[in-house]
């Protein structure tokens, strides 16, 4: 089973990589052990998030822009309000949200295959850009 490696760029993942580099530089570890430890980290964090996290978040804000590259969505928000289990928090600095489509490649859902009537070739709503204004050519 393949595991996502994007958790390696979280705070704890970066700290783990830094410590592993220090240990390798000190000569206390070598070979493929650091790579195997990072793989174990990927497995552990994926399993923990899948089985132990049940919290739902509501995020509201002004979307500055977004990207979709190989089913990895990155949203950039300004002036975000985040509600997590009934506790509201206003974030004044820009917020970056990374979401990964965890479905098996090639197993497209029926909703993705059907295009609503009047939708453009890109499957979008036809004429509204990411800022909520009508797109102009």
Number of helices: 3
Instruction: Provide the low-confidence segments as ranges.
Output: 107-137
Helix content class? 25-40%
Mean pLDDT: 77
The fraction of residues in strands falls at: 25-35%
Q: Brief description of this entry?
A:
The chain has 137 residues and is α+β, with helices and mostly antiparallel strands. The protein contains three helices and four strands, in the order ααββββα. 28% of the residues lie in helices and 27% in strands.
Structural description of this entry:
By secondary structure, this protein is α+β, with helices and mostly antiparallel strands. The protein has 3 helices and 4 strands, in the order ααββββα. Strands 1, 2, 3 and 4 form a 4-stranded antiparallel β-sheet that branches. A hairpin with a 2-residue loop joins strand 1 (57-69) and strand 2. The model is unreliable at 107-137 (pLDDT under 50).
Throw out a few tags for this protein.
about 140 residues, alpha+beta, disordered C terminus, single chain, four-stranded antiparallel β-sheet, elongated
């Amino acid at each position: 089973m393949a595991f996502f490696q994007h958790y390696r760029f979280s705070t704890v993942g970066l700290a783990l990589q830094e410590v592993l580099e220090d240990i390798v530089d000190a000569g206390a570890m070598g070979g493929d052990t650091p790579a195997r430890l990072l793989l174990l980290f990927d497995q552990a964090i994926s399993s923990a998030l899948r089985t132990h996290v049940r919290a739902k978040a509501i995020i509201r804000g002004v979307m500055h822009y977004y990207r979709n590259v190989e089913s990895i969505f990155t949203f950039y928000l300004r002036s975000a309000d985040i509600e997590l289990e009934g506790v509201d928090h206003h974030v004044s600095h820009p917020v970056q949200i990374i979401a990964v489509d965890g479905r098996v490649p090639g197993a497209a859902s029926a909703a993705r295959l059907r295009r609503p009537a009047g939708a453009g070739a890109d499957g979008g709503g036809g004429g509204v850009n990411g800022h909520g204004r009508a797109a102009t050519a």
